[in-house]
Amino acid sequence: MKLVILLLAYMLRRRLDNHDRWNGDAAWRRWFGRGVSVEAGREDAIGRGLMAILVPVLLLILIAWLVRGAGLGILLAPLDLVVLVALMGAPGWRRVLNDYADAWARGDTQAAWHHIQERLPASERGAALSPEAMHLALSRALMTSVFNRYFLVVFWYLIGGLPVALLARGLVALADHWPAAPARERYRRAAQWLAWIPARLLSCTFGVAGDFAGWSRDIRRVLPGFGRSTDEVLITAANGSLTGYALDPARFSEVHPEQWPDFGGRSLAAVRDLLNRSMLVWICVIALLVIAGVA
């Protein structure tokens, strides 16, 4: 049943993303901002934020216990589907990437930066980046966003069910949207712990979904990767898995200077294709586990 629910949720969420519908980030911001007051001198306190996540997690556990106790466990399937669709999704990226690729092709670096700056981490939004550094920053942000909003949710849903998936996604949302900036770093560290295994699993999946030979040369640098961040692990593994210097703009400009205007769009298309193929690999593996009676 979990496989069917995941497939339906994934297809529905992808369709919503294509139409920029049902933006979960806006809902998280409203939820965290409702009735939240930060005391002076305690801006880094994380108790209120954790309660904002733990209350719905405990509510889901209670609902599941009551429904199963009544012998109506089948009714949990629609609940799982709706909540998974709400937890997953990265709407808005398609338009941003298309506008960025068009600006890159025109050689308008300033316009390209204008289109993507809100998608970058706060620490990089005001930086004066070269075109190469800007593109790598965008690629890291794209991979991290898709990982947090799809792969992380899928992994923990399979391992611990809907409450654990909500907890993992909620920590990421706290790190991104909690009103007090000092606390966001503490939430980010907690989210990194929950992302440790699925991020390295996805980095290994890149070797199956991409160029295995190139991946095998680079993956040793980030596995097991203690102390390395999620985005560093993912972009290093993806760089080895992609051919044609898709994530090496400096090298691409040296080898193919005449194709430089097309690099932005081609590189992002390669990254998106790699992520899509990786999700397909995950779905196939989950299906095999279901057939084997493991999942």
Automatic annotation (TrEMBL):
Keywords: Membrane, Transmembrane, Transmembrane helix
Pfam families named among the record's database cross-references: AmpE
One Gene Ontology cellular component annotation held by this UniProt entry: plasma membrane
Keyword Translocase: no
UniProt GO BP: response to antibiotic
Transmembrane regions listed in the UniProt entry: 45-67, 74-93, 150-172, 193-215, 274-294
PANTHER family for the chain: PROTEIN AMPE
Entry protein name: AmpE protein
Organism: Marinobacter oulmenensis
